[in-house]
Amino acid sequence: xxxxxxxxxxxxxFAVPGLEALIASRHPLVAVISQxxxxxxxxxxxxxxxxxxxxxxxxxxVMQPTKLKDDVFLASLSALQPxxxxxxxxxxxxxxxxxxxxxxxxxNIHGSLLPxxxxxxxxxxxxxxxxRETGISIMRVVSELDAGPVxxxxxxxxxxxxxxPEVERVLSELGAEMVLDVVDGLAExxxxxxPQDDAAATYASKIEKHEGAADWNQPAARLHDLIRGxxxxxxxxxxxxxxxxxxxxxxxxxETSTAPGGTIVSGPSGVLGVAGSDGRxxxxxxxxxxxxxxMSARDFLAGHRVVPGVRIERA
Length: 315
Description:
With about 325 residues, the chain is an alpha/beta fold. It has two domains: about 5-205, Rossmann fold (3-Layer(aba) Sandwich); about 210-305, Formyl transferase, C-terminal domain (Methionyl-tRNA Fmet Formyltransferase, Chain A, domain 2). Helix content is about 25%, strand content about 25%. Helix 1 packs parallel to helix 6 (about 165-190) and helix 5 (about 120-130) packs antiparallel against helix 7. The longest helix has 25 residues, at about 165-190.
């Protein structure tokens, strides 16, 4: 059986299952390319990227270039004589000079049903927009962002309360299985790809910090989708009786209310209900007051005086 020399581009947890699957495959992984390690936490200690940790544990060389057009990096990668490049949430646009190095080009594990949600945050945007399903597309990487022909695609439902990290976890495991089939097909010379319908393309822009400062005078379902989608960062924020907080989990109920959107409609019993602008009620289940730990609504209410009728302000 033919084996391909592979270079793998990926950085966050989403990229780990695909990397692990390739390590266990018959195809030699000659290098992992990750974004540089970054300081994290209060101590600003340098944290290894998830893919780097896996690669080092498996004895695979890791490259972390700051500039992808750097001649030394390109020469080092070319010297490995890769047959194929695989990309999974690497986090940067790959220049043409890089795409040209692998003999068979590069393929991408993308978390959407292309051509829908091309771009940096396909899973976040699908959850934020209240989509009922998403999926994985394995496509060829071309110069235009996420516009290459698709080898294979699979659909995955999005649960009513599923958060972005939960959906990404499912997609990453599925993508790891799917990409191996495509790699084997390319090795044997029988993999085919279908062009995308560019006219149907939509764009999933990068998540920005300001999106967490939500307007609470919105329909309850919209608020729920924002809370699910803006995880693990920046999270939806609010301000209640002067206290700024982040919401980690919510639940859309069948309750109704005539109160204005963003108004607390329950509280003292340990249930923190918020009226949506559409008359439906959203329950806030897990909150994090600024500078404190994540806690249940009951614990939050035990430490903060909240009365029905007060409105949540934009943080």
